[in-house]
């Protein structure tokens, strides 16, 4: 343990107890996260098996929703949340087994694993994925989740099956704009567009907001002057 504080021997012992205790709890939590992921992945596999056995025409959608509903009732989570977690766990177990093992061993957390699998979504070739996983795990065991994220993205780009330009062209086809109603007569405007356009829109909106504020200030000042003149 390293510290720049001038601690007494008793305080050093207490600090060591706290730090080691927290580290042990974090390791145990990671082990439980790995076990939970294994069970969620098993639930996803079961849904696929039920669908295949019954020859469901919906591709297993109904089976997944049914099983997710049972799990959600037990965990007090929505079906959609459970379905998402089942999918993420299945990806972790099947595509990133060494990452799952690292979580189970308490070497990394479930949050680390999430960063690895999210960034690795662009690495679809199994061989490239193995190389990516090996490279990113070396970083994950010594870095925080926040520091891991940009490194994982950089490594994923290195092993990506599809170029960034090709992925961008495909993503452009999903451009969209929608309005989400909020409380107090407010609404949220969401737009999915290429990043340069998004930053351009944000810059323009900021310019417009400054102009509106200046106009409101001028109008208010004129009104005050008119009131004083009338008096």
Characterize the structure shown.
Helix 1 runs antiparallel to helix 2 and helix 1 (9-54) crosses helix 3. The chain has helices at residues 9-54, 61-75, 79-95, 97-104, 110-119, 126-140, 145-159, 164-172, 195-230, and strands spanning 176-181, 187-192. 74% of the residues lie in helices and 5% in strands. By secondary structure, it is mostly helical. The model has no long low-confidence stretch (mean pLDDT 86). It contains 9 helices and 2 strands, in the order H-H-H-H-H-H-H-H-E-E-H. The longest helix has 46 residues, at 9-54. The chain has a two-stranded antiparallel ribbon.
In short:
With 231 residues, the chain is mainly alpha-helical. Helix content is 74%, strand content 5%.
